[in-house]
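Supplementary Text 2. Reproducibility record for the structural model of the 455-residue chain.

All settings were left at their defaults, and a single model was retained for analysis rather than an ensemble. We include the record here because the model underlies the residue-level annotations in Supplementary Table 4.
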Amino acid sequence: MKIKDRIALQFTLLVAAILLLFSFAIYSVSEHYRQEEFYDRLKSRAQTTCRLLVKVKGIDKDLLKAIDQNTLSEMLDEKVLIFDKENDMIYSSVDDKLLTYRKSLLDEVREKKYIEFHQGENEVIGLFYQDDSEPLVVLASAYDTFGHSKLANLKNTLGWGLLAGIAVTVGLGIYFAGNALRPINRINGQISLITAQNLSQQLDEGNRKDEIAQLAINFNTVLDRLNKAFEQQKSFVSHASHELRTPLAALKSEIQLGQRFTTSNPDLEEVFNNLSSDTERLISITNNLLFLARSLENVGNLKMAPVHIEDLAFLAKEELLAAHPNYEVIIGYETIPENENETVIKGNEELLKRVFSNLLDNACKYSSNHQAQIIISSNAKSCIVKVKDNGIGISQEDIPHIFSPFFRSSNASGVPGFGIGLSICQRIVELHHGNISVTSELGAGSEFRVQLSHV
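Retained model, structure tokens:
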């Protein structure tokens, strides 16, 4: 889960929990006050009934019952029972519905003077009434229709408010999390553009005060150190390779001169032949290292122009066959492009020709029949060139390292080579913002795949 989504989720859960607790507290407090208020109203109704029954002359039980039954009330299923000291019921506000009671309940009311409890959905009070007359026990019961209706409305309001609050919180959480992480996203976008070829690029350091700005500053410091290390490394390789070329050329000339005087001595001639072969290897390694170093130095100065991929393939083929007439290269299409621009790429012709020359040379060199095949195809965005052979193949353990400089596959020790060609190919393809990959099987051959964006 992305940090933005995690922050938004945590923020939503936190606010939802707060809203839920707040809603529960409001509902609980409202329910408590409703109940207390209703008990007070029941108590007031019980006291009023007792006063009317005891103190007001001319009001008998039947008249009082009629008054109770016809009084507009917000109470549902209201009942008032009055008992004398002998626990005999002397008054009931209704005839058809009686309040369930026990003798122990009446004794408890006399002892505590006032009690409150529930009976089903109804609230009930017990009141001990004693004025100048005989002491009475009053039981009053009713259902608070209006109060429960208000609570139901409050519950619905809080429920919908909670859902709306959570929905708003989700939106705000995503917005503020995205807004807070936008500088990091910007830094990520800038970092994704940094490669080994543009380590001098710097990140935007913003206000240079907050934590993200400090992160950018520290990252720029690391980039600067890496860039200096890379520059020193490239400079060393370039200068070392350049300085080695002169004495190696002189050594080669002296060996060639010496070979003229060894024709009469077979042993000495063999020694000079070995020296000549080793010198050629050193010269080849030096030239490749110099080419690799200079390709890194001149990234910004590369001349790019539209070039047909087929032309590069044929030029590489001609160059290879000129050096190795016994090699064979077959060029074909996997799919015929509908538009000629699908095989036109923007790049440096010499460098790209070097890629195909190296791949073809390896394909022929490691194949017993010295044969290689180039297959060209294209899609909506890219041009794809596959170089296939039926050679010795590459083990699966060696494939991840095959593009590393000076690495050679374990089964290639018997074939001349230095392990630099593929690293040069990868570097050139990366300079053209392309991709190179390989699939191979031991004893069945290899397939190198170069993908470059067409114009």
